[in-house]
From TrEMBL:
<dbReference type="GO" id="GO:0006164">
    <property type="term" value="P:purine nucleotide biosynthetic process"/>
</dbReference>
<keyword id="KW-0511">Multifunctional enzyme</keyword>
<comment type="subunit">
    <text>Homodimer.</text>
</comment>
<keyword id="KW-0554">One-carbon metabolism</keyword>
<dbReference type="InterPro" id="IPR036291">
    <property type="entry name" value="NAD(P)-bd_dom_sf"/>
</dbReference>
<dbReference type="GO" id="GO:0009086">
    <property type="term" value="P:methionine biosynthetic process"/>
</dbReference>
<dbReference type="InterPro" id="IPR020630">
    <property type="entry name" value="THF_DH/CycHdrlase_cat_dom"/>
</dbReference>
<dbReference type="GO" id="GO:0005829">
    <property type="term" value="C:cytosol"/>
</dbReference>
<comment type="pathway">
    <text>One-carbon metabolism; tetrahydrofolate interconversion.</text>
</comment>
<dbReference type="InterPro" id="IPR000672">
    <property type="entry name" value="THF_DH/CycHdrlase"/>
</dbReference>
<feature type="binding site">
    <location>
        <begin position="168"/>
        <end position="170"/>
    </location>
    <ligand>
        <name>NADP(+)</name>
    </ligand>
</feature>
<feature type="domain" description="Tetrahydrofolate dehydrogenase/cyclohydrolase NAD(P)-binding">
    <location>
        <begin position="142"/>
        <end position="284"/>
    </location>
</feature>
<keyword id="KW-0658">Purine biosynthesis</keyword>
<dbReference type="Pfam" id="PF00763">
    <property type="entry name" value="THF_DHG_CYH"/>
</dbReference>
<dbReference type="InterPro" id="IPR020631">
    <property type="entry name" value="THF_DH/CycHdrlase_NAD-bd_dom"/>
</dbReference>
<comment type="function">
    <text>Catalyzes the oxidation of 5,10-methylenetetrahydrofolate to 5,10-methenyltetrahydrofolate and then the hydrolysis of 5,10-methenyltetrahydrofolate to 10-formyltetrahydrofolate.</text>
</comment>
<feature type="binding site">
    <location>
        <position position="234"/>
    </location>
    <ligand>
        <name>NADP(+)</name>
    </ligand>
</feature>
Amino acid sequence: MTARILEGKVFAQAFREDAQKKAAALQEKYGVQPGLAVIIVGSNPASQVYVRNKHKSCEALGIYSEVIEMPETTTKDELIAKIDALNADAKIHGILVQLPLPEQIAAHESEILERIRPEKDVDGFHPVNVGRLVTGEPGLVPCTPFGCLRMLELAGIPIDGQRAVIIGRSNIVGKPMLHLLLGKNATVTICHSHTKDLPAITREADILVAAVGRPKFVTADMVKPGATVIDVGINRIAPKKLVGDVDFESVKEVAGAITPVPGGVGLLTVAMLMENVVRAAEMQLQA
Ligand SMILES: Nc1nc2c(c(=O)[nH]1)N[C@@H](CN(C=O)c1ccc(C(=O)N[C@@H](CCC(=O)O)C(=O)O)cc1)CN2
């Protein structure tokens, strides 16, 4: 039997509607429109598309949006000065620096991201928000793993007591996903490049999350029959050809549910950003 396909657009639409209602409720209660500022440095074509989508999504949902375009040659100090100004700007509740950064400032990424006030860190990358996720306190959570969790819940896929395996230990996906699933009482294992006999571990997973950044890395023999497979990979293998970290065609014959690429969890990233902007505004207005 072939797997249930978890279409990103269906879940993203539900999350957007939710964020729109919450934005309207904040406007009604406080007379304030939630506001997002996105900083993009340089001219990475994919980043430009993602930033445009974030701006359009804000406009559609009643969220104020500013896009700050800075040249490729921007220095760390210039970028930090911009962040400081947005930190102090009352109409901006969420700040995001689009990644990747150009080479000359990429080495300072942590210092740059840590300059964003934790209350405005709608990417959930600041160490304060990372700590809150680890300890289970309310905070802002990275958009892609947050979207994966909310999708599993909305799809009615059980998490409590299930065995979850994550391939990839990045700060943006793997590690936050670990804490989100743990918070829902899954038994979670993280695998990475040093893991021995990876297929033996992935075959134990009721929920398998692939965030490894290698095209079609997960094959059917690595998947337990009936498992839910979430593909977080976005690998461009030709100018117009995107594939995930999962070999979709073979794995869909074994899995119980699977996300496609494109059209899967990538679409949840921007939707969950809208949710984070509204949550950030709510937290700041309640304080
Ligand atoms: N500051 C951040 N930078 C980056 C993040 C992030 O969450 N915060 N994530 C990615 C880029 N990204 C959003 O910023 C993003 C990636 C992918 C998608 C998406 O809709 N993917 C589609 C395919 C789109 C395509 O054709 O390229 C899909 O998977 O179906 C949205 C947003 C890195 N940078």
